[in-house]
């Protein structure tokens, strides 16, 4: 059977012979290509369906407009601004992302492609691909939200480089944790409620440290302490997700 | 009797009651396990 | 075993009586409020111990796939939640006396509340999955993932903002700041609560196993 794979690096279930071959080379050359293939597949699907992805950006824009309308650039005394702005920025980013992130695995279960995916690729690669997509989605949301935030709330950033590092590290942790938890909650009936319940307590330390780092960066310092905590959190979450990927995503 | 002594006595009585409950529960579970 | 369980009766009775009557109230605390340390900290310790036991048995389950390990993990989380709620309640009583309000979002209070939410979510997660094998596996994965991120919640988040919580046990000096009688009763209480926890855990896990056996005997 000569079946042309739709995405480079990923093979279909019908190609039975290649299934075992893929498992054997799970961590050999080609892993990165296959992680990328998963990410590209999710991106194409989301872009094709449009409505979900538009909703995420629309949510970010609405939240931003609401916040700027309510407090505006000058609604707050000068000295109160940095802490509130840091907290508001992450609240907007988190809730916008939270409308999109839990979809990672839910979609596979809805369309019935989960089974095929389980057969063709090892769990760690599926998880890695979906984490990558979620990270890129978060960075896209941030890329849209932050310029708006700068303009509408008169946000004066002391150290833009530190903000960039914080957004990269914070978004990565958010992507790893929510992708893993999305795999856990994908098969459950009330998955969106369940996702919020299981994700919120785990993400609070991440958000608090990200807000602390953003605050220091706004004031112009490089936030060494919070960033170290953030990177340790990212590392711990990545390690745990990697070890537990199989248990979370077998049938 | 001092108020601390009173509190100590009340709490010990509560603990003894809890202990008896757990003891009986333990016996019932053991009986059910033997029944299977 | 039976002897140890029986021993718990006079032992904890003595600890409770001593907690009220033996040590002098600590300096810097209002009235007798410092005595809560003999109940509040053992509750917090027991619930943390329970969550660690749940993580250990979750790992054992994922390795061996023995349903009994899953029973123990599920039971440990429920008992951990019970002691977690008791920690919050005793902490709230203390806050009311010392700081004049039942709840004031002190970082230590908030992080402990989140810990209770975290394991409360475990119970919801279990309840939402029908298939017993998958329920056990998903719950174990969540318990282990949560255990890895738990230190960030318990140790790091409270450090980011200042706390009013007394630093008698967990402090930067890494020492226990108590006089000799207080220390004796304190460790006595820790030991007794741990014993009580083990007993409760075995009861709850055995109940879980019984109800599992009953479900298997009468398939729906």
Tell me about this structure.
The complex is a heterotrimer of chains A (251), B (36) and C (220). Chain A is an all-alpha fold and 251 residues long. Chain A is built from ten helices and no strands. Chain A has helices at residues 16-24, 31-49, 51-71, 81-100, 103-111, 114-120, 123-152, 160-185, 191-218, 224-249. In chain B, 92% of the residues lie in helices and 0% in strands. Chain B is mainly α and 36 residues long. Chain B has one helix and no strands. Chain C is built from six helices and no strands. Chain C has helices at residues 2-21, 37-64, 67-98, 107-127, 132-160, 180-217. In chain C, helix 2 (37-64) packs across helix 5 (132-160), helix 2 (37-64) runs parallel beside helix 6 (180-217) and helix 3 crosses helix 6 (180-217). With 220 residues, chain C is an all-alpha fold.
Query: How many strand elements of chain A?
Result: 0
Which residue ranges of chain A are poorly predicted, with pLDDT under 50 across at least 5 consecutive positions? 1-5, 11-26
Name the shape of chain C in a single word: globular
Q: How many DSSP helices of chain A?
A: 10
**N-end to C-end Cα span of chain A:** 26 Å
Q: What series of H and E elements makes up the topology of chain A?
A: HHHHHHHHHH
Q: Which sheet architecture does the biggest sheet of chain C show?
A: none
Q: So what's the overall shape of chain A?
A: globular
Quote the beta fraction of chain A: under 5%
Biggest beta sheet attributes of chain A: none
Counted by DSSP, the helix tally of chain C is 6
Helix content of chain A: over 70%
Mean pLDDT of chain C: 87
Mean model confidence by pLDDT of chain A:
79
User: What is the SS-derived class of chain C?
Assistant: mainly alpha
Task: Compute the separation of the termini of chain C in Å.
Answer: 37 Å
Q: Evaluate the radius of gyration of chain A.
A: 20 Å
Which percent band covers the strand fraction of chain C? under 5%
Largest interface: A-C, 35 and 28 residues
Gyration radius of chain C, to the nearest Å? 19 Å
Backbone structural class of chain A: mainly alpha
